[in-house]
């Protein structure tokens, strides 16, 4: 078994978790279900679930569609939690 203590986090998977976590947080703040958000954004609910869980990449087109459905600027989906909604 490989020793992973000294390995740095994978920036790609960190980015997926960041975007997915922001989508989930903003969706829940608006009392939206995954099904509601997926419908409003024109994407599949199962796909949205895997994005929220950081398991799939999301295209720029879908970032914009989800941001529009959440009525936020697309940059909000890329913002670290400690900077979220600070303009």
From TrEMBL:
Lineage top rank: taxon: Bacteria
Keyword DNA-binding attributed: yes
UniProt keyword Transcription, yes or no: yes
Name by which UniProt lists this protein: Helix-turn-helix transcriptional regulator
Pfam families, A to Z: HTH_3
GO function terms (MF aspect): DNA binding; DNA-binding transcription factor activity
Keyword terms, alphabetized: DNA-binding, Transcription, Transcription regulation
SMART domains xrefs: HTH_XRE
HTH cro/C1-type domain residues: 23-77
Gene Ontology CC entries for this record: cytosol
Membrane-traversing stretches: none
Organism of provenance: Persicimonas caeni
Record InterPro entries: Cro/C1-type_HTH, Lambda_DNA-bd_dom_sf, TransReg_Diox_bact_type
